[in-house]
Amino acid sequence: MIIERPALSLPAMEALAREISLWARPGLALHLSGDLGAGKSAFARAFIRGLAPDDRDFDIPSPSFSLVQSYDALRVPVVHVDLYRIGSPTEVAELGLDEFLAKSLMIIEWPEKLPEDLSPDRLKISISGSGAARDLKLEAAGKWIEILKRDELIKGFVKQSQVAGGTRYYFEGDASARRYERVVAKAETLLLMDMPRRPDGPVVRDGKPYSAIAHLAEGIDAVVGINDYLFKLDYSVPRIYTADVNLGMALIEPLGDRVFSRMMARGEDMEEPMKAAVEVLADMAKRDWPNKVPVRGGADHRIADYDLEAMMIEVDLLPSWFWPLQKKSMPGDEVKSEFAEIWQSILPGIKPSKPVWTLRDYHSPNLLWLPERQGLRRVGIIDTQDCVMGHPAYDLVSMLQDARVDIDFRRADELLDYYCGLRAAAGPFDAGEFSRVYAILGAQRATKILGIFARLSKRDGKPIYLNHIPRVSRYLKRNLAHPGLAVLKSWHDRNLPL
How do residues 64-77 score in pLDDT, each as one tens digit? Predict the structure, then answer.
């Protein structure tokens, strides 16, 4: 794939570099070619600055003499290489450049001196001209081809919006294919949600991939349908200003930066925010919820039942991923069968008489405090796309047994009692039965998350998630103390102690 960018001023060339930096990830290579003085180092500096947190400015020395300059404190680690003074392939080999690619993006000036391409995922940028205008030629290979295609689609989408002409900044990404940018125009700032429809993964059971069995969102239509409906009910989900479900893009309202998890990390008083978030769930439990919603520009989105098949494929993550992490071996068939049979005997007994929308990710990273708003609208809610029809206890468990931050057991119990009081005040409510289901769903969720975090470490190369395992193990151990989970506790005591 080749893209021409003729007659760019130096500021326009640097703006292009910052735009391309939005797509940075380890393993990619950027090759910068051109005569001395063409602007290769200026392009590299603008790219690197685009990866700095909070648009922070800092010194970026040329690697002309050091040959290799590393930047480990960026959003994505970068290794900047200048091969101008290299005289032979042997000298290149001595630099050990291939070792950097696993964890870094590599920028290489004078790449023609490489004896061979280091990465199949490379973007060659040839710069010619000088002074007021430079001509750029972009030649993409590997993953860069799809990146540049996606970038062109995004630019066309933004151009037709109320933030046309705005500057794009990286906002955040997550473990999925979804990513976000801030688009800043003179009049306003919106968030771009970039969520291309993901392809089916490998078949894991009954001819279906994991995402289909667990009822995970496949595209942005789920976000649009769920958020539009919640917005009409006056919950503080981000307003969607414009969306293209076929492209998988939307421009949405930013809800600010007072994220619960960050507030907790700063030691802020969470009494009022946490109680307000509980009040939202108690309010949701009173409503009648549809099992499908209209999607602007697309077909209806169906909200699946959080059924036995979905919950079983989730608990299976523990023997499949967490067991090997802890015991350095795979569990035997008999042990796995007993584990599955125990869960199959427990889960059918928690089917709600009145299913509610269950967001499945109602926890501190996805809750924002909006004190300038009134009532329930003080709690901002994001990450709604995996909503299912389930038991109202599930989202309360997600919040009070937060996998990423410590929630004091005593405080969690107080908030559980507060929720039960709100429910009892609104009508008939069996607090004892709710607490039983709460413990079972807490055990189910903790079991799933232990498997997910182990998988993120082993399969996806994200060992940082292992830091949360002791916390989630404590939650699981506490849930297993409920009499209704005695058989499951016995299995853990015998096979996988917590």
Answer: 777 888 888 888 99
Give me the residue label for tokens 């970038």.
151
Q: CA-CA distance, 480 to 478, in Å (whole number)?
A: 5
pTM for the model stands at 0.89
User: What letter represents residue 214's amino acid?
Assistant: A
Q: Which CATH architecture has domain 2-144?
A: 3-Layer(aba) Sandwich (3.40)
* CA distances to 233, 235, 277 from 375, in Å: 13, 10, 10
**Of the candidates 159, 192, 390, which has an alpha carbon nearest to the alpha carbon of residue 281?**
390
Are 109 and 41 in contact by the 8 Å Cβ rule? The answer is yes
Residue 94 has pLDDT above 90, yes or no: no
How far apart CA 59 and CA 39 sit, in angstroms, is 17
pLDDT of 462 > 90? The answer is no
Higher pLDDT, 199 or 75: 75
Give the separation between CA 385 and CA 218, rounded to whole angstroms.
9
Q: What are phi and psi of 31, to 5 degrees?
A: -105, 125
- Tell me the average pLDDT across 73-93: 84
Task: Give the whole-angstrom CA distance, residue 209 versus residue 212.
Answer: 6
Query: Would you say domain 256-495 falls under CATH 3.90.1200.10?
Result: yes
Q: Which residues contact 196 (CB under 8 A, 6 or more apart)?
A: 150, 177, 219, 247, 248
Alpha-carbon distance of 415 to 101, in angstroms, equals: 47
DSSP assignment string, 159-196: HTSTTTTPEEEEEEE-SSS-EEEEEE-SS-EEEEEE-P
CB neighbour list of residue 206: distance below 8 Å, 6 or more residues apart: 213
For tokens 């039942």, the residue is 305
Domain range list for the chain? 2-144, 256-495
Say how far apart CA 64 and CA 60 lie, in whole Å: 12
CA distances in angstroms from 109 to 38, 78, 101, listed in the order given: 11, 13, 16
Q: H or E segment at 6?
A: strand 2-8
